[in-house]
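Lab notebook, design round three. We kept the backbone fixed and only want residue identities now. Task for the bench partner: fill in a sequence for the structure below.
Input structure tokens:
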């Protein structure tokens, strides 16, 4: 074992049963980190208990979905109802991140900062930050968290760097295929890529979120390049919480899995199952090797190759919809553009310009080139209807011209900020 293992208990302070489970896992097991929820009835109890756990690293477990907020409705109307209770779930916050990015970021930043200040008032030094329901992974909220982490010198933000193939290869069981674990993992992994935040801390157990058994930790391989791994856990003592059921707003607190996760943390031999410096499965290992070689090439050459591929891909789609599916050429053009504009944004952003700017802003900028579609439709109609050029030849001519235009627009407009920083 050549790296650091962080066994973190989420939602410290959410209930009496969870608080007592944290104490037990710390004193008798592997627990060395916890994330505090500051706007809960049992928060003060959790802080008092932590005074007797000197080696327990404490972080903030951001809460933007349940119970009372720190700020009033007038300050954060997007987030709370008239009674000052949070009104949005993960899906609604994700929707707001797309359509009301600026407002959500501003209001989420105010509320999260209020939670940080409240934590400091309890004399808790923050080592890391994560969130209830993983809402901090939503791009607008993540942007706010990054700024606050820098402002308050918080060392670590939880990311989703887990390699699902490695987890599936080493763990015993396939419960993630049936309980939504794989869907949650794929969504959060996608958001992690969009957020573009580098971290040397590997994350584990997202596939088994809330259902972490000893079989899930039978063998844990941490890929090369990571200095630490965080194991996210949710220990609890449901028998205690059932006595205070009126204070429980989340039924998962009463789940038997809370007790099972506690038992997992009490098995100290599990720490011997972690192996640092492992290789990725061969498909990913080859991909990483090729990707490292790829980014050594000049940007213009990368664009030529990616742009060429995108051009061939766009033309193939047009030919498929027009010549094979026998759609009218204008309908074939519309469908092709919807697919290829999105595909081009992702490939250009990552494989050519390596941008880590605001994804939503860059995405909207790239879709701003919709005028190119209208130019394409006019040119295609002119060449077909007036010049009597065959539809496939006419579209081929346009795509060659548009490739050069796309490069110039992406370089000096879509991803200009990133290029300027370089």
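Proposed sequence:
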């Amino acid at each position: 074992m050549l790296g650091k293992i962080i066994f973190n208990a989420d939602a410290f302070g959410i209930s009496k049963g969870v608080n007592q489970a944290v104490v037990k896992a710390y004193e008798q097991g592997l627990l060395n980190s916890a994330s505090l929820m500051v706007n809960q009835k049992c928060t003060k109890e959790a802080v008092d208990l932590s005074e007797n756990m000197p080696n327990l690293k404490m972080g903030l477990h951001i809460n933007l979905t349940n119970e009372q907020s720190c700020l009033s409705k007038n300050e954060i109307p997007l987030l709370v109802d008239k009674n000052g209770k949070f009104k949005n779930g993960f899906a609604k916050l994700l929707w707001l991140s797309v359509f009301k990015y600026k407002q959500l970021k501003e209001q989420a930043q105010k509320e999260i900062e209020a939670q940080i200040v409240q934590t400091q008032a309890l004399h808790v030094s923050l080592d890391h930050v994560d969130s209830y329901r993983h809402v901090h992974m939503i791009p607008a909220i993540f942007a706010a968290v990054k700024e606050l982490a820098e402002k308050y010198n918080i060392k670590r933000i939880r990311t989703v760097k887990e390699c699902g193939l490695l987890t599936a290869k080493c763990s015993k069981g396939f419960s993630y295929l049936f309980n939504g674990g794989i869907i949650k993992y794929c969504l959060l992994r996608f958001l992690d890529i969009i957020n573009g935040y580098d971290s040397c801390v590997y994350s584990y157990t997202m596939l088994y979120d809330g259902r972490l058994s000893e079989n899930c930790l039978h063998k844990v391989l941490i890929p090369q390049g990571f200095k630490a791994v965080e194991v996210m856990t949710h220990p609890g003592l449901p028998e205690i919480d059932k006595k205070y059921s009126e204070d429980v707003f989340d039924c998962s607190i009463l789940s038997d899995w809370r007790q099972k996760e506690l038992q997992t943390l009490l098995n100290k031999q599990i720490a011997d199952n972690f192996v640092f410096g492992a290789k990725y499965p061969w498909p990913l290992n080859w991909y990483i090797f090729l990707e490292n070689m790829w980014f050594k090439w000049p940007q213009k050459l990368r664009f030529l190759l990616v742009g060429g591929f995108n051009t061939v891909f766009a033309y193939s789609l047009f030919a498929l919809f027009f010549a094979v599916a026998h759609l009218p050429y204008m309908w074939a053009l519309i469908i092709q553009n919807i697919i290829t504009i999105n595909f081009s944004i992702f490939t250009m952003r990552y494989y050519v310009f390596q941008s880590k700017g605001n994804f939503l802003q860059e995405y909207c900028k790239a879709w701003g080139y919709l005028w190119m579609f209208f130019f394409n439709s006019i040119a295609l109609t002119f060449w077909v209807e007036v010049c009597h050029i065959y539809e496939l030849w006419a579209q081929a001519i346009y795509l060659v011209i548009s490739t050069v235009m796309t490069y110039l627009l992406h370089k000096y407009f879509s991803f200009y900020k990133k290029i300027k920083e370089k």
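Keep this in mind before ordering anything: The longest strand covers residues 4-12.
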